[in-house]
Structure formats: structure tokens, C-alpha cells
Amino acid sequence: MPLLEPNPHALRPGSRRRTPAPDRVPDHHARGTPRPLRDELTAVLGPGKVLSKVSDLVRYASDASPYRFVPQVVVVAEDIDDISAVLSYAHGKGREVVFRAAGTSLNGQAQGEDILVDVRRHWAGVQVLDDGARVRVRPGTTVARVNAALARHGRVLGPDPASAVACTVGGVVANNASGMTAGTSRNSYRTLASLTFVLPSGTVVDTADPAADEELARAEPRLCAGLMDIKAEIEADAELTARIRAKHTIKNTNGYRLDAFLDGTTPAEILRGLMVGSEGTFGFISEVVFDTLPLDREVSTALLFFPSLPAAAAAVPRFNEAGALAVELMDGNTLRASVSVPGVPADWAELPKETAALLVEFRAPDAAAQEAYEQAAKEALEGLTTVAPVSSVDNAFTRDPGTIAGYWKARKAFVTAVGGSRPSGTTLITEDFAVPPERLAEACAALLDLQERHGFDAAVAGHAAHGNLHFLLAFDAAEPADVERYAAFMAEFCALTVERFDGSLKAEHATGRNIAPFLELEWGPRATGLMWRTKQLIDPDGVLAPRIVLDRDPRAHLRGLKTIPKVEAIADPCIECGFCEPTCPSQDLTTTPRQRIVLRREMMRQADGSPVAENLLQAYGYDAVDTCAGDSTCKLACPVGIDTGALMREFRHERHSPREERVAALAARGFRGVEAAARLAVAAAAPLGDRFLESATGLARRTVRPDLVPEWLPEIPGAAALRLPRTHRPAAVAVYYPACVNRIFGGPEPRRGPSLPEAVVRLSARAGRAVWVPDDVAGTCCATIWHSKGYARGNAVMANRIVEAAWGWTAGGALPLVVDASSCTLGIAQEVVPYLTDDNRELHAELTIVDSLVWAADELLPRLRVRRRIGSAVVHPTCSMRHLGVEDRLTRLAEAVADEVVVPLDAGCCAFAGDRGMLHKELTESATAREAAEVTSRAYDAHLSANRMCEIGMDHATGRTYYSALLELERATRP
Questions:
Q1: Averaged over 164-171, what is the pLDDT?
Q2: Which of 250-264, 429-443, 527-541 has the lowest mean pLDDT?
Q3: pTM for the whole thing?
Q4: What is d(CA 579, CA 102) in angstroms, rounded to the nearest whole number?
Q5: How far apart are the C-alpha atoms of 876 and 544, rounded to whole Å?
Q6: Helix, strand, coil share of the chain (percent; to 5)
Q7: Interhelix angle for 965-973 vs 756-766, to 10°?
Q8: Count of other CB atoms within 10 angstroms of residue 214
Q9: Can you give the pLDDT at residue 2?
């Protein structure tokens, strides 16, 4: 055991005694998966595919819904053979299986109580076909990733759910999720070209195969006959046929798609339709081929404010008639909650509660069509009573991409923004229904009256163009009286929707567990009976997702409601939506931001010292704290800016002993010596060879502690030059601060040419924008070294030192400070601020911190002549560039020096995070796997970035040599 192994109990949540929550994980789960089940599945699937620790079961127990069910075991399936093997095992043992991908579903359909199968991790992939007219997608691919690939061809998917950055295609198809513009004509059911799926029996069906029906009949004769019998029965009943057709004239995902029996002529065609919206109860979707739609790039958008929700709803038909592609509704509660979303005007917090808004968007293929749409929109506006209750409201259409993106960011954050502002400790319910669009205003008024009578103050938003509304309710799932209040509301709401409006109880979120008890209320006994028969026909043993879609328990929607215990303030607003997960570097290695919070909440549910809590604490150190890159890209992905990386850094601090904090502070005070020693060590290491250094550091890591001793990597470059370039202050228009990593590590090997500091100085002089390098930069740092590791005292020492030094160097902020590593720019510009004294915070406010990318792209490039170009370059935008909003400068510099510039579609955080990639190289290897595969699929003339440690990380991941874009710019403009 390492000498300085941290004490896991340092992360024990609070010291006060807690009352165990009613839905806590019981003690018998403390050891995780029962051993027989674990061993049998491992024997069937092989090692590494069965997750069985209690922490694994807990982190997979929650999704974006208000429900929580703890699985017995989690299987990480890698291919169809694994899926078939799990299904075969389940049949043989009488067990149940639920498939889970992104876990963004809102009704509990991604949760199971027995075998839960992760079909996200190994199931990503996009193949663009026919120049974008079609696209083949694997089910673990996010909608946003597919659209990024299609955008290069001017195409887009039909379904466009608000969770596109996180939700996966398999879930979108399985729920028939639609979104803002899909309606009933652009959803999965209407835009699917073909499906490949695995039936509960293990039979694989590819509906694109001309022999699909022949092979299906041979493998599943009973199933084929039964499907054709139901088809004939429906078609013989004119009233039922008309009812099915009528129910799908508006958005409807409640129950199974009985119209598949009307639209399909063969068993394979019927199954293709039935799989859409089946929520994993009919089989596993392993591949989807979509017919895509044109990506109209000419966009005109307005956010129009109205005095009330019914008034806004009444205006919707005008914009539908004018040809708007999207008409989105937001009520006052939604608008006010949106102020937590970065970029939303602060004065929205002052909007009257009764206010509502319509987000109206027209998209056109060309300028002429755009102008025609704008004229139609102008005419639609005439006679409407809009209001401007706060100064930021202008009620005008705009073409500005930034403004439009801000509107959509606010709209798409509906669930997370409202959920984040709910009372602490309450559970969030997201309801979703549709009525005929012409009755939307009436439905809004009825909904407001209903929620008032039951004591709810719901937030309402939705796809008004399609008569589809969402509303959010918060209640305390730990209080039986509050649960009964919710139950009473749901009973009356469902009756209202069906009996008064003949609406859909689920328009696009699918039945799940939430509406299963009310299925027959909407569809009636005849149609509901056919749904039960279809399920029995396809899954006669009930292996797949029992109690999802179909459940005879009238209180099934009240079973498994999760409590939301209060956790650390920074994470407490989390509604477990999962938007953070695709951007997390550790998503395929250990845990995600959502799972880190889920685990923390389970600790709070437990009694002090319970065996479950103890085992969660033991696993949390590595799974959550150590393998968090700390890059805070989760904050960028979270609509309300929850920074789980900051929480993990705080936990690192809590694990430090007082002695460790003192040593870190001493290192900060004596950093001049530390810097010199580090440069000397790197120089001395070269003759020793990689094998010796790997062995030596490996031994030290095992002896001391892996999280304290970096591992030597062959990609680590040699030492930097002892002296920085000579410069002169009088002629300088900026101060140049070479980051400590560029003062310690040299440039890429074996590339010849100037060092990065030399290149920056030469480029600046060449452009007539001379810079000055202070003589006393040694011993200073951006403080990120201490910040990322949670060393608060050392962080404070260096943060104040660098600000005081920068104040002097820049003559009190008169000159900008140019920093040559994006993470260091971020550190000095933003991350040091909380650790500054009051006086130094005032000094910091006067400083202008400029990243070297911005300096080169904005100040130097327009004044330089590019004399030579390379053929191709691939770039790696770092997470710090994303935080700073300067990724476009990296691309701009690359485009100046290369004929072809590629930004990998799977580019993300490399997780090298200073030295974390040397402390846990498995983190970087996992985080970069998809980007590395994309990069190494072809040759490039240059691999460019702008952060030395990230470049080393990408070298390690790809085997290619990454270097600063400024080095390539210097070469390209050299006389």
C-alpha cells in the first residue's frame, strides 16, 4: 500500500447524523452484484464487461427522470454477440434486461431492476451515405455528433430534441423523440430508411436486406404469422383504423405505434415501424439508416413577448400559416428561471409572472426565400399585442447568429434551468402532452387552472407549432402527502387531456413508467389490448423492460420516485439530466459529472457508517476524484453552469493533510527553485532512456502514491533553453509572458526551428507589434498547478504573486499581457480571482490578459505575409480555448498556413490537464480514443494546438507530433 494513500473518510459527507432516506440503497447491496450472477455473466461475456461494485450499480440507477431503480448488475456490451449472449442468458435464467444509452429519458425507461445493459460506450459511429442524403448511425451516437457529420454535406436529421448534445440515436428512435421542428412529419417514424435490430429471441433483423422477410419467416414463423393476424384484424375494423390514424395526426408517443400494422405490408416492415417508440421492450436497435433533410442555412428568428400564456398560444396559428419551421412557447416561470443560463439577459428576472414568449424561427435555402418568409412574418405580427416589460426585449426578427443561438440556448435549457431553480430537496417531474394545435390556447388556460387548484406553480414550455406542451412540477418524494398531491394532479390532468381535448398523454417523451397506468384511458381497451398482444407476441417470456410502456398497476407511476437529498451547493441544482456526460473525459473510464453527483447523493441518503456508504467512499476516491480531469468542460455543457470539476478539486483539497498543504505552499513560495530543478531534471532524464525512467517512476508511484508521482512518458520532450529571448521594453506594445511549461519543456522533437518563446517574439517583431519579456518571470506561474490539485494555500500564494507581478510588468494594466498557453491564460484571467486579496482583486480588474492565439490571429496575422503553406493541418482545440471562447482563432491561424484544415468531429478534452495525464495516463488514453482514431485515419502535414501539455497528451494518444500553431505561423511568414 502506498505510504501517502489518502484517507477516503475525508470525503465523508458532513458530520451531523442523518435520517436515512426511504429510497436509500439497502445494506444487502453493499457488496454489489450477487456473486453467482456476476460470475455467470463474466463467464458468458468475458472479463471487463460486467460492472458489479455497489458504486457501479448506484451510478447507473439514476437517469434524467424522477425515478430510481438499482440494477442487480450492469453489462457493458461491445457488439451484437454480447447482446445476443445476454438475452440468451436472461431467457435461460428467467431474468429481465433493460438497455440504457445516454440516460436522458424523462420517464424512467432507461432504468431496470435486474440486468442493465450499457449500449452507449461501444456503440458510436456515423457513416454518411449518398453525399449526405442518407446516414447510417450506431445507437450510441449523439444526435449532435450525427448532425456535425451531416453539416459538411448541407444535410440534417429530422428529429431535433433539445437534448441533442447528449441524447443518442438509439434512444431517439426507441422513444420516437422529435423536438422543436420534427412534428409528425420529420420524426424517426417518418424519416427512417431502415433498421437493424435484435429481437428478444436473439434473431437479428436488417430491414434493408431484400431477404429480410424470408429469413425472418424461417427464424420466427410464429411471430410473422401473429403480426399478419393483428394487421388483418385492425384493417378489418374501420372504426379502429380511423381511430389509430386520428391519434397520430398530432404528436403521440404513448403506447406502441399501431399504425405500423397499417403502414407495413410485411412482417419485417411492420417490425420496423413497431420498433420506433417501443422503448426497448421489443428488442435492441443496433443500427439505423435515416433519410436526411436539407440544412437550410438562411435563418430569421424572433423572441416575441406576450401579456399571458393564452395570448401567446393564440398567436401560434399565424406563424404556422406564415411557414415558420419552429414556434416555441415559454411561460413567465421559464423565462425568469432562464437567467441562470449564461448569456440570458439579467432583466428577465424582473418579467411579470404572467408574461409568455414565442420563439419563432424561419429557415430558408436562399436569400430570396428568406426575404419572403420575413415579409410573411411581418404580416403575421400585424394586429398582435406584444409587450416589452423589460429593456432587453425588442420583439424583432434578427438574422444575427449570436442572438439566435442565445434564444435557443435559453429555450433548450428549459428543464435544467427550471429544475435548477426548484426548492432544494425536491424531485422534478417533466410532463409532456399534445392537443390539436388549434386548441392550444384553451389547453394553456385549463392547465393554469389545474395547477393552481392542486397547489403547483408549474413552468410551461413547448413546441407550440405542434400543440405540444411540457410542464415541470416539483414536490418532495420523501413526503407521502406531497406524493399524493402529485397523484391527484396526475389523475385529473390525464382525464382533462383525454376527455376534453382528445390529446396525447405523451407527445414525444414516450410512455415510460410515468404514463403506463393511463395508457388505456387514452387508447381505450380495444387498442390497449392489441398492444399487450403485440408485446406477448414479440417477447413472450417478458425478458425486455417489464413495467415500461405496459403496466396494470394503477399506481405504477408513483413507484420508485427518487428523493433528492441536499449535497454541496455547487452541485445541488443538478437534476441529473446528463447533458454533461458527452464532454466528460472520464466518461468511458470511471464516472461522469452526473454520476459523481448521483454517488454523492446516495451517500447522503445513507445512515452514518452504513456498509453501502463505506463502500461508496472507498470507490469514490479513484472513480470520482482522481480521474476527474478538472477541466470543467462539464460547466460549459451544463445549461445552468454546474462545475463538477470545481467540486472534485475541492474534494482533493479536503483529502490533503495539513502537512501536504504546507509543502505545496512552500513549493509556491520557492517556485523559482522548483522551476529550475524541473528543467534540470528533464535535461538529465534524456540520457537515461525511456525504459529506465518508466521503471523508476513506476516504483516511486507504487511506493509513495500514484496521484503524487507522475509517470514518465516517452512523449515528454527535452528541456527548454536556459534563457528566454532578449527583448526591449521601450518599443513593446505588449508584455509577453512565457508560461512555466514553456520555460521547462522544449519544443517538439525532432522538429527544427525556434522555440515557442522565440517564435512569439519574432512574429510580433515581424508584424511591427513588438513584445517585451520581463527579466523576472522565473518563479512565477498562473497557479493552475495548485488550483487543479486543490492546494488552496499554494494557490493563494501564486495567484497573488502573478497578479502583483503582472501589474508591475504591464505598468498598471497599460499594456496587455500575452500568455502562450491557453490553460495559463485561463488561469490568470479567471481562475486566480477567488484566491486574491481584496487589493489584488482590484489590480486584476485593470489587467488585460490576452491568449497568444488571440494575439497572433487578431494583432499579428493581418500584418504578416504568408510566404509558404502546407497542404493539410489537423487542429486540437483545448478545453481552455473553449472556456476562453477562442477556438476559432486556432482554426483561423491554421487556415492561414494550410490549404486544408480539419477540426476532428470527436475533438474533446485530452485530459492531460497539466500533469494529470502523467498521474493517470489511462485517463488521457480513454478521453482521446475517438479523436485519436479520427486523426490517425489519414496523414496530415501538421498537427496544431496551443498548449504544451495538451500537445504532449495528444502525442501520447496519436503517436503524431503536435506543436503550437504559432510555430507553424512563424515558419510560414519567415522571410
A1: 97
A2: 429-443
A3: 0.95
A4: 9
A5: 42
A6: 45, 15, 40
A7: 50
A8: 12
A9: 47
